[in-house]
Amino acid sequence: MENGTKARESLQGRVALVTGAAKRLGRAVAVRLAEEGADVVVHHRSSGAEAASAVVEIQKLGRRAVAIAADLGNVAEIKRLFDETAKYFGRLDILVNSAANFLPASIVSTTEQVWDSSLNTNLKAPFFCAQAAGPLLRRTRGTIINFADVGGILGWPGYVPHCVSKAGVIMLTRVLAKELAPEVRVNAIAPGTITMPGDPPEWEEDYIKRAPLKRSGRPSDITDTVLFLVRSEFITGQVLIVDGGRSL
To answer: Distance from first CA to last CA of the chain, Å, rounded?
Structure first.
């Protein structure tokens, strides 16, 4: 019983920053971390109303929360995001780089704009967030969790820039794990076949066909993995694939 209580309370006093936390998986992660005791910075770019509601949801759990808007395509904005985090909370223990886009583009249809948007949001931003967070995380012996996805492993011809960006996240995770050790652990999650509330039913049907476990994943499958990596003090530089076996 004592060990179980300790596990539930292990995020008390810690501060997490989740990028793209106003909606979907990012929001689910932010709320779950708060449920486990963390105070949370809810990052968003332009989803002010959704971010504000996420803050209210977290505060109802008895945790502190603040919404901070920042364009992660702008390095100056990223620096401001972490400066404001330090001013508001005085520390940072957990960075979850979950903000991403998912732009369809084949070798024929890929434009420079689509390429830059994919690489900037999915790869450039996590790097500069890690760079800005590094000094704060070193002080607390904190952790970074990047969001890759199975597209960075399988390679989808209809999503060339996206797959390249997510493959980059996997290598970025390994490099940062070496660069920031021993004070900071860096890992990644590669979700796949995850169904969110409001997704078209045909998506779930397709996921079930592709996954050996014959079901789609739930947001809790991802948030459970985030918590596992936050608490696993001897794991760094790894990518956990959470896809029901789709990538086999």
So the answer is: 38
Band of pLDDT at residue 203, cut at 50, 70 and 90: confident
Give the per-residue pLDDT at 6.
44
What is the rounded distance in angstroms from the CA atom of residue 170 to the CA atom of residue 185? 14
- Distance, CA of 231 to CA of 76 (rounded, Å): 31
The C-alpha atoms of residue 140 and residue 90 are separated, in whole angstroms, by 11
C-beta pairs of 154-157 under 8 Å, 24+ apart in sequence: 154/247, 157/106, 157/107
Residues classed as catalytic: 159, 166
- The three-state secondary structure class of 90 is coil
String of b and e for 182-204 (b: at least 16 CB within 10 Å)? eebbbbbbbbbbbbbeeeeeeeb
Distance separating alpha carbons of residues 4 and 72, to the nearest angstrom: 38
What is each CA distance from 85 to 26, 61, 89, 155, in whole angstroms? 17, 20, 6, 36
122 half-sphere exposure, CB direction, 13 A CA radius: 28
